[in-house]
Design a protein that fits this description.
GO terms for molecular function: ATP binding; Hsp70 protein binding; unfolded protein binding; zinc ion binding. This is Mitochondrial protein import protein MAS5. This protein is of the alpha+beta class. Among the domains are: 68 residues, DnaJ domain (Helix Hairpins); 76 residues, HSP40/DNAj peptide-binding domain, CATH 2.60.260.20. The chain has ten helices and 15 strands. A four-stranded mixed beta sheet has the order 10-11-15-14. Helix 2 runs antiparallel to helix 3. The longest helix is centred in the N-terminal third of the chain and has 18 residues. The structure holds zinc ion (ZN) (2 copies). One zinc ion binds next to loops. The site of one zinc ion has 8 residues, from loops.
Length: 400
């Protein structure tokens, strides 16, 4: 039995959640709430704090027994930067969001994340694209020292640590606050203006333009990433991070993609649906697929057909996906009354009217088209093809 459930509620988990469940829940929430994704920064902070407490077995024990009050009696650290915890969990500094954050292992510079927008045609055929980016490289003139040899002095304000720690008494607890040293901008070193390298102005690094060749493989999907290891910024005493290319798949006007399958919609006329014929599908490469419809086989409105192997190519040369075709049949608005006898010969007979009990009064009525306002009311959130289906239904209802 836990004293409070606030932190569990923030993560949408039960108080008996396992560590794995907690982590999963936090990932899900944090991805949605991350300020870089337009989430609420305050809520993101709260959720991160809740996870920080619950993922620490000691702190969780205290929270379960005595609630939030129990934790503040413990005193201690002022809490972790939510960005940092987020980065730890999602791997690498900044992860997909390009945000700040200090990695915990050997120092590594931030990953550079670029999104590349590609069409479905390009994903179908594969594509090589060149990407120009600017990154920092170690200054060759001073070899990353920032100035003359021996000109670097340890910063006295922060004792060369680059951070300043201040303690603050808040009621019963002492809070420890870490800030970047503003004297040395967190580098821990000071170089006198006259000793600074003229090439990098003492910054130790200089910007460099670099051209990367990005191979978009056949069959890649939106959200997939391409890594260029160690191609991010260089910095003295740090390992360069990666350049991460994120593939963005543009929506297509003719095809929808579902993993390796493609879905398209084809409209055929009533005569073709009943009497056979053909239609064409312009594919994602320079081909048009011609589909023959056998006379004598009826294609119905709403039928779903499939052409095997005509979906997206698979990335690792396995079986390609399939092409699904949603068929709609276009009905004529009117028909020549003289041809109706021919239709009567060709089609199954009409449905006869239902036999009613003698008590039921038969009343003849007039049916007309519903206007667009009425239709909207009836079929809100439905697309055109849905309306067509309902049209048929409505005619049947009125016949009864
Ligand atoms: Zn230099
Ligand atoms: Zn300093």
């Amino acid at each position: 039995m836990v004293k409070e459930t606030k932190y569990y509620d923030l993560l949408d988990v039960a108080p008996d959640a396992t560590d794995a469940e907690l982590k999963k829940a936090y990932r899900k929430k944090a991805l949605r709430l991350h300020p870089d994704k337009g989430g609420d920064p305050e809520l993101f902070k709260e959720v991160t704090h809740a996870y920080e407490i619950l993922s620490d077995p000691e702190k969780r024990k205290i929270y379960d027994a005595r609630g939030e009050a129990g934790l503040s009696e413990q005193g201690g650290m002022g809490g972790m930067d939510p960005q940092d915890l987020f980065s730890q969990l999602f791997g690498g500094a900044g992860g997909f969001f390009g945000g700040g954050g200090r990695p915990s292992g050997p120092r590594k510079t931030k990953d550079l994340v670029h999104r590349v927008s590609v069409t479905l045609e390009e994903l179908y055929k594969g594509k090589t694209t060149k990407l120009a980016l600017t990154r920092n490289i170690i200054c060759t003139k001073c070899k990353g020292r920032g100035g003359k040899e021996g000109a670097n002095r340890s910063c006295t304000t922060c004792a060369g640590r680059g951070i300043r720690v201040t303690l603050r008494q808040m009621g019963p607890m002492i809070q420890q606050i870490q800030t970047t040293c503003d004297e040395c901008n967190g580098t821990g070193e000071i170089i006198q203006a006259k000793d600074r390298c003229s090439n990098c102005k003492g910054k130790k690094v200089v910007p460099e333009k670099k051209l990367l060749e990005v191979h978009i493989d056949k069959g890649m999907k939106g959200g997939q990433t391409i890594y260029f290891r160690g191609e991010s910024d260089q910095a003295p005493g740090a390992e360069p991070g990666d350049v991460v290319i994120v593939v963005d798949e543009k929506p297509h006007e003719r095809f929808k993609r579902q993993e390796y399958d493609l879905i398209t919609e084809v409209e055929i006329d009533l005569l073709t649906a009943l009497g056979g014929g053909q239609f064409a599908i312009h594919h994602l490469d320079d081909r048009a697929l011609i589909v023959h419809l056998e006379p004598g086989i009826v294609i119905k409105h709403g039928d779903l057909k499939v052409i095997p192997g005509q979906g997206m190519p698979s990335q690792r040369h396995h079986e390609p996906g399939d092409l699904y075709i949603k068929i709609s049949v276009r009905f004529p608005d009117t028909i020549n009354t003289e041809s109706i006898t021919q239709l009567e010969r060709a089609l199954p007979p009409r449905n006869t009217i239902e036999k009613f009990d003698k008590k039921v009064v038969l009343e003849e009525v007039i049916m007309s088209d519903a206007d667009s306002r009425q239709r909207r009311g009836m079929y809100n959130n439905h697309d055109e093809s849905m309306e067509d289906e309902h049209d048929e239904g409505r005619v049947q209802c009125a016949n009864q």
